[in-house]
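Sequence, please.
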């Protein structure tokens, strides 16, 4: 699919990036991303990808806007308090990019609805706070054979990696079980969730367009208290209950490191 004159003008400043160009922009235009959830972290993934000209987006997030959302959920506003979050999310994204083919789902992902909610997309971005949701998306990514960008944060720390079936392990290789210390409510600075959201959006752009090297086989650990950033190698567990039987594709993760 070629770019229109308007698209050439809208994306001029990224089209001139080396190894991206009109071809990379065209690939973005032809791709659909699934993002769950769409708050302090996923909202930034969605906003950056809408701005970058991705063609299709499915966003999932339940509930109404609360006062306590607004230190980080930048697609929401005080006007929206007490109203449906998805209304704010889709309104803001369409305002930014009216050409975006956008589907908003007023539900959170879980094992019971994941098959229905996630189909016909090219890539998943996991921004969910609960492991039940994260594991459901991980399983679905393996079933569909599509990549998943995995973002998480706690207080001043953020972790991000990308999985690709056959090339890397999966979230279950990293966390075979739900960590016993994990709680629903945890400290969040919007600048930390926003930072890892921007990194997640960049991973999507890279994986779709072929630009640079995605984090396949690497976990980027960021500590914003000390401003330290470290990449750790992570490996596939051959006995993983989710991806253990997925055959390796003929490309070593070492070449991606
Ligand atoms: Zn696995």
């Amino acid at each position: 699919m070629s770019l229109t004159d308007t698209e050439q003008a809208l994306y001029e400043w990224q089209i001139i990036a080396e190894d991206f160009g009109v071809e990379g922009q065209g690939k973005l235009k032809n791709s659909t991303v699934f993002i769950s959830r769409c708050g302090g972290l996923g909202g930034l993934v969605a906003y950056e990808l809408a701005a970058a000209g991705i063609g299709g987006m499915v966003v999932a997030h339940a509930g109404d806007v609360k006062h306590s959302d607004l230190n980080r959920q930048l697609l929401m506003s005080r006007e929206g308090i007490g109203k449906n979050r998805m209304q704010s999310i889709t309104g803001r994204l369409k305002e930014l990019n009216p050409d975006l083919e956008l589907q908003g789902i007023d539900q959170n992902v879980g094992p019971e609805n994941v098959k229905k909610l996630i189909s016909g997309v090219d890539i998943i971005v996991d921004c969910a706070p609960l492991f039940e949701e994260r594991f459901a998306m991980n399983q679905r990514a393996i079933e569909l054979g599509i990549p998943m960008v995995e973002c998480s944060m706690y207080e001043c720390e953020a972790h991000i990696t990308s999985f690709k079936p056959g090339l890397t392990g999966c979230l279950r290789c990293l966390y075979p079980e739900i960590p016993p210390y994990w709680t629903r409510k945890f400290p969040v600075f919007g600048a930390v969730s926003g930072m890892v959201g921007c990194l997640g959006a960049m991973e999507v752009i890279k994986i779709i367009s072929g630009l640079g090297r995605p984090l396949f086989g690497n976990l980027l650990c960021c500590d914003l208290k000390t401003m330290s950033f470290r990449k750790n190698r992570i490996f596939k567990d051959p006995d993983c209950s989710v991806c253990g039987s997925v055959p390796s594709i003929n490309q070593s993760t070492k070449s991606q490191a």
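The chain has one domain: 5-221.
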